[in-house]
Amino acid sequence: MIKHIKLNQDNLAFAIEVQREIFPYDDATKKYTEMVNGENDNNYFLVYNGDECIGVSGLAHYGADVEDGFLGWFGILPKYRRLGLGSEALRLLDETARDLGYRRMRVIFNTETGFPGAKTFLKVNGYTAESYQCPRDRVSLSGNYAILSRSLYNEPCEPWNNRNLHLTEEEK
Ligand SMILES: CC(C)(COP(=O)(O)OP(=O)(O)OC[C@H]1O[C@@H](n2cnc3c(N)ncnc32)[C@H](O)[C@@H]1OP(=O)(O)O)[C@@H](O)C(=O)NCCC(=O)NCCS
């Protein structure tokens, strides 16, 4: 059975190791440490299948958009992929997202640098894609960004409609 273990001081170093194995070019140390120290709402998790850690997952939102949960650092370790576990972990995260009051799940995806199978994985799991190009968010104008979205309820999912995600500021 798939379950979530929230990040805490005891599992922080291990969680960073798992995150680095899944996303070798990114380092979540700063973000994870802030979460664990309570500087932000901590909705970041290790994902377990029984006693085995199989990946990481997380949820966050941007500014005042409190009904739109964004996937953060969601991934399955290479040796556990293509077994349906990612889809199960995503469904478990949906439950957490509903408990937190989100109505929609979103993913910001860089089509140039993102993991090639991830877009297919999200589409198979009910997400639909729109391009993200916001004039006030300069990096988005490269045309490399997509937002994938899914309703957490049985209702049509409003598109993100190019609202500013402030990716340019985050990159500084
Ligand atoms: C994307 C990821 C989470 C998928 O996890 P997973 O456990 O392998 O996913 P599942 O086994 O549930 O896959 C379900 C379906 O998604 C699609 N899919 C998954 N990985 C795929 C890939 N590499 N290429 C093409 N389709 C893929 C397939 O249709 C698959 O069904 P199938 O195996 O019966 O063909 C995993 O590959 C990963 O962690 N990648 C690196 C991190 C990442 O990109 N994270 C962002 C995710 S939003």
Name given to the CATH homologous superfamily of the largest domain: Gcn5-related N-acetyltransferase (GNAT)
Order of helices and strands: EHHEEEEHEHEEH
Label the CATH architecture of the largest domain.
Answer: 3-Layer(aba) Sandwich
Shape: globular
Mean pLDDT equals 94
Total domain count:
2
- CATH class type of the largest domain: Alpha Beta
3D structure, described in words:
This protein has two domains: 102 residues, Aminopeptidase (3-Layer(aba) Sandwich), CATH 3.40.630.30; 69 residues, no CATH class. It contains five helices and eight strands. The protein is an alpha+beta fold and 172 residues long. The site of coenzyme A (COA) has 20 residues, from strand 5, helix 3 and helix 4.
Task: Give short descriptive properties of this protein.
transferase, GNAT_dom, acyltransferase activity, transferring groups other than amino-acyl groups, 172 residues, Aminopeptidase, eight-stranded mixed sheet, 26% strand, binds coenzyme A, alpha+beta, Acyl_CoA_acyltransferase, Acetyltransferase (GNAT) family protein
Give a topology summary:
Blueprint: E1 2-6, H1 12-22, H2 29-36, E2 44-49, E3 52-60, E4 68-71, E5 75-76, H3 85-99, E6 104-110, H4 116-124, E7 128-131, E8 145-151, H5 167-171
Parallel strand pairs: 4-6
Antiparallel strand pairs: 1-2, 2-3, 3-4, 3-5, 6-8, 7-8
The chain binds coenzyme A.
Residues 22, 71, 74-76, 81-87, 107, 115, 117-118, 120-122, 124 line the site of coenzyme A.
